[in-house]
Structure formats: structure tokens, C-alpha cells
Design goal:
Helix content is 74%, strand content 0%. The protein has 579 residues and is mostly helical.
Length: 579
């Protein structure tokens, strides 16, 4: 513990006391009902909900993950997660209002709203609730805890068992106290602290290597990688259809931007984002919250980590575990006081992510499994207590996952692959009436089986994702046509409630034949324009900032102009107004 002095410890303790106070203040409100505990009473304004989305994604594992991507592949490999910005913008304009209109407590509850109360939809709700709450959620929590262990191992010398015990205890105690209100409100502070900490480290790193020009030159000299500073990798030599053209780097990049964003398990927004959309005051606040998340998540979070990662190439050209370069940089170059602030910022990032995952995972276990099928019609007090039991269960699973996980990056890639074939079904169920419960079940099974089958096969990551995505698609498309559609009365009720665009002619025809009022859907051009303007705003700003930091003023100006055009387009189209 000699790496820190009394000022560092004072800052770390002050942060923990602040988080605890907010949790205690929110305890009474959070325990009024399960809706208050899991959705903050559906009363959050867009700026709290959106910042909470960002804070949840801003975990302590992400800078370690980004550092490894930059060190081993180059800046372009960040498209492995930048591509999800395309998906979140799609979800912003096409799906956020629909999720809020659906008025579900969890995204899994939508299965019975969409497919009715038959055997298949009941099976799907339990299966998907368990699938998301335990394997998916637990693995994600495991790598977050692993990242915090790696940080404290360098900073404080803590061993793995002790770090797992401390951090699972902190996260579970805080989440049990405050529910979604406490999670969302402390996320505001946690995001600010985490972002400031990342920027401070990047500034010290640039100063340490002699400025941005020295950073750029030194990083290129440190590794023999022509793609290191590129925003996109160059293809290989030869024609478009030749094997030489499709290098592993270029294949992966094209897979990310053309397939991964719509094929992954979070293509419809993802449970954590959807939970906050459903916590918003109304559908316009849900849209604005997701737009703010999309912008902040990419444009503001990315570059402090990338700059720090490039500095590590100069300062530590060889290191056994690339993920450890980030915490080593932090402890080596920051003065006392700033070290404490940096550790507090990473602890804030850790707490914001783990509290969300625990609250979110417990919501599936209690609302979609326990309350719906095992123990019905009990008082709210009973389900609130079971929510705490479920939280402890998820914590225990996360601790085991952290113990067995060695690489944050490998765990991240495994989860993306594990759900790579499910995304199209989650999106299409909003736009095509023929998708049914068996479509979802078969997609989840096929994606999981293919991921495990290819685990030890010698393939590039991009090729692996393509096989899982399109292999799963063959399965669920066949199952969709071989099984019956959802009951028409359930489809009609879903259509009335959410007013989706797309292929719903058969449902409207049935409603007309039965004398039902048919709500007028939005024109598909409205969300399409929003999506286009949003892409310009978010990716123009993200790349503009990057090119400016890499001392390419011409391309930086292009990025900023594109971003400004997107902002004006959104404003004129009325997307930025609140209701």
C-alpha cells in the first residue's frame, strides 16, 4: 500500500462515503414496490437516464480492454465496440419509443406481450430470463471484477481472492440498499469522476512522452504495424474477391460495421439500456436518453483511453499482459493525490456497472421467473425480499466467473459471439408479425451451440462471428416458417400498444375484420431520418476528435462539419424537443 499516501486514501474513502450516503437516502423510496426498485417509478428525466446508461457502460474493465486492442491491433480495432454505436442509434430512433409504449418492467417480459400467453411464450420468458441473468450477465460481471482485481493488484498488491471478496461485497451491499433510484443518481457522480480520471491520466501520459507529436511518432516506432493509427485497416493486395484482399484485420472490421451491430444480443438496445428507457418519464425522454448515451459513449469516452494506450507502447514496449499496461501507467506517472482520484474514478466506473448488472439480473430472476411462474400473487414486500436474494445469487455467480477468467478482452469477445445469432430476431419481432416465440428460442440455442462448437477452431474472430450469425439465421428462419405464428389477438394487442412500423398488414387485416380500431403507425421515414442524422452527429464527432488528437486537422474539420450537419438535422426534425 506504499503506492498511495494519506491524500490518496482520503479521496478514495470520500468517494465511498458519498456513494453510501446516496444509497441510504434512496432506500425508502426504492422499497415502495418492485417497479420503484427496478424502474425508479418510471419517472427519470432523459439526462439522468442517459447518463446512467453511459456510466453503466463506462466500467473499470473498458480502459484495460481498449489498451489491449490498441497495443495488439491498432486504433481501428475499437470498431469491435464502436460498431455497437450504430446499433444504439438504431435503437434510439426505431425502438426506444416502442419500448416505452410497451410498458414492461423488463425486456424479457415483452415476450408475453408480443407472443401471447401460450406454452411457447411462457417457456421463452423463463429460458431467456435465465439465459440473460446467469450465463450472459454473470460472465460480464466476472470480467468487470477481474479488471478491478488487476487494477488493485498493481496499485495495492491485493491478491485475487481478497479483491473478489471486497468488490463483490461493496457492489452487492450498495445495490441491495438503493435499487434503481440510487443506481441512477450515483451514476451521475460516478460518470463525472470516471471521465475526469481518464482525461487526467491521458494528459499526464501525453506530457510524459513529450506531447502529441512525440506520442504519434513514438507509438509508430514502438511497433511494426502500419494500421496502428488508422481509423480503419487497409485491405490487402489483389482484387475484391481475392483471398489476399480480405486480411484478418479487414475482414474483422467489415464484419463489425456490416454485421455485428445488428447481429449481437443487444441489437434491440440491450437489457441495461432498455431498463433505463422504461424508467423514463415518457417515450420522448427515452429517445433523448438513448441519443445522449450514444453520443457520450463513443465521442467522449474513447479518446482518453486510446491516448493512454498509445503512451504505454512507448513507455512499456514489452509487457506480458497488455491489459496490465493501463494500471501500471496510472501508478507510474501520476503524482500522489491524482493516484487516489484515478483509483476512485475506476472504482466509480466499477460500481456503476456492477450495481446495474446486479439490479438488472435480479429483475429477470424475480419478475420473469420467480414471480411469473414459481410463486404468484404474493405481496410486494415478499418480492422485494426475493429481489435481494436474487442479487446475492448473481453476486455469487459473478465471483466464480471472476475467479475462472483471466482476460477481460477474451471474455468480452466470448459474450459477443455467444449471442451473435440472436440479434436479428430481437429486431425483426418489432417489424415483422411472423416472428414467433420459437424463432427466439431456436436463435438462442443455435447461437450458443455454434459458439461452443467453434471455441477451439482456428478461425479469425471476424470469420467466427459470421459463421455464428448466419448459421443461427438458417436455423431460426426455418423454425419460423415451420411453426405457427403468435395468436392474432395477442399480435393485435401488441400492435395497438406499441404502434410499430414494418410488415404488419396481416395483423391490421385481422383487426379490421374483427371491427377493431387500427392505430395509425408512424411513417418509416421519420426514424430513418433520425437514424441518419444521429449517425452523422455521433460518428462525425467521434472521428473528428480522434483526428484532431492525431494531428490531422483536415480530417478533423470534416468530422466536425459532418457532426454539425447531424445536429442541425436532428433539431429541425424535432427530435431534440422534450415533451
Amino acid at each position: 500500500m506504499g503506492n498511495l499516501n494519506s491524500l490518496d486514501w482520503a479521496i478514495i474513502i470520500a468517494y465511498n462515503v458519498l456513494s453510501l450516503v446516496v444509497g441510504i437516502l434512496m432506500t425508502r423510496r426504492a422499497h415502495k414496490s418492485t417497479e420503484e426498485y427496478f424502474l425508479a417509478g418510471r419517472a427519470l428525466p432523459w439526462w439522468i437516464a442517459g447518463t446512467s446508461m453511459v456510466a453503466t457502460s463506462f466500467s473499470c474493465d473498458t480502459p484495460l480492454y481498449v489498451t489491449k486492442l490498441v497495443r495488439t491491433m491498432g486504433i481501428y480495432e475499437n470498431w469491435q465496440w464502436w460498431c455497437f454505436g450504430i446499433g444504439s442509434l438504431f435503437a434510439t430512433f426505431f425502438l426506444a419509443p416502442l419500448w416505452r409504449r410497451a410498458k414492461v418492467l423488463t425486456d424479457v417480459e415483452l415476450t408475453q406481450v408480443r407472443y401471447g400467453g401460450g406454452k411457447a411464450s411462457r417457456l421463452l420468458r423463463v429460458f431467456r430470463g435465465l439465459w440473460l441473468a446467469l450465463p450472459i450477465n454473470v460472465i460480464v460481471l466476472g470480467w468487470i471484477i477481474l479488471a478491478m482485481y488487476k487494477i488493485t493488484n498493481v496499485a495495492l498488491g491485493w491478491d485475487k481472492p481478497f479483491a473478489i471478496f471486497v468488490f463483490t461485497g461493496l457492489a452487492s451491499f450498495y445495490t441491495l440498499l438503493s435499487g434503481m433510484w440510487g443506481v441512477a443518481l450515483t451514476d451521475l457522480v460516478q460518470y463525472a469522476i470516471a471521465q475526469i480520471g481518464a482525461i487526467i491520466l491521458a494528459v499526464f501520459a501525453v506530457d510524459k512522452v513529450g506531447g502529441l507529436a512525440a506520442l504519434k511518432e513514438g507509438a509508430m516506432k514502438a511497433v511494426s504495424n502500419d494500421n496502428l493509427l488508422r481509423m480503419a485497416p487497409a485491405p490487402g493486395h489483389g482484387g475484391f474477391f481475392s483471398g489476399d484482399f480480405w486480411t484478418p484485420a479487414f475482414t474483422g472490421f467489415m464484419t463489425y460495421i456490416a454485421v455485428t451491430w445488428w447481429a449481437n444480443v443487444n441489437s434491440d438496445g440491450g437489457g441495461k439500456v432498455i431498463q433505463r428507457q422504461n424508467s423514463c418519464k415518457n417515450e420522448q425522454h427515452a429517445l433523448l436518453a438513448t441519443l445522449w448515451y450514444s453520443l457520450t459513449n463513443l465521442a467522449f469516452r474513447t479518446w482518453p483511453w486510446v491516448i493512454a494506450a498509445l503512451a504505454t507502447l512507448i513507455l512499456y514496449p514489452t509487457i506480458a499482459d497488455p491489459e496490465m499496461a493501463y494500471p501500471k501507467l496510472m501508478m507510474d506517472i501520476l503524482p500522489f493525490g491524482f493516484k487516489g482520484l484515478m483509483i476512485a474514478s475506476l472504482l466509480a466506473a466499477f460500481m456503476s456497472s456492477t450495481s446495474t448488472h446486479l439490479n438488472w439480473g435480479a429483475s429477470y430472476l424475480v419478475h420473469d421467473v420467480y414471480r411469473s411462474y414459481l410463486v404468484k400473487n404474493r405481496k410486494e414486500h415478499h418480492y422485494l425480499w426475493m429481489s435481494k436474494v436474487a442479487t446475492v445469487l448473481v453476486v455469487a455467480g459473478a465471483a466464480l466467473a471472476a475467479w475462472w477468467t483471466d482476460s477481460v478482452t477474451d471474455a468480452f469477445k466470448f459474450v459477443i459471439a455467444f449471442g451473435a445469432g440472436t440479434g436479428p430476431v430481437y429486431v425483426l419481432r418489432w417489424f415483422w408479425w411472423r416472428i414467433n416465440a420459437w424463432s427466439e428460442i431456436s436463435a438462442m440455442i443455435a447461437s450458443s451451440v455454434l459458439t461452443l462448437a467453434l471455441l477451439n477452431v482456428d478461425l479469425s474472430y471476424g470469420a467466427r462471428l459470421l459463421i455464428i450469425t448466419f448459421g443461427s439465421m438458417l436455423v431460426w428462419v426455418a423454425v419460423t416458417y415451420l411453426t405457427k405464428p403468435a395468436p392474432m389477438d395477442a399480435l393485435a394487442e401488441f400492435y395497438r400498444r406499441t404502434r410499430p412500423v414494418g410488415v404488419w398488414g396481416a395483423v391490421r387485416q385481422w383487426m379490421r375484420a374483427h371491427g377493431q380500431v387500427i392505430p395509425k403507425p408512424e411513417k418509416i421515414s421519420t426514424p430513418l431520418w433520425g437514424f441518419a442524422w444521429g449517425m452523422a452527429l455521433v460518428f462525425g464527432l467521434t472521428l473528428g476528435i480522434g483526428y484532431q488528437l492525431l494531428l490531422n486537422p483536415t480530417l478533423a474539420v470534416v468530422g466536425y462539419v459532418v457532426s454539425a450537419i447531424g445536429l442541425v438535422g436532428l433539431w429541425k426534425a424535432g427530435f431534440l424537443k422534450t415533451k
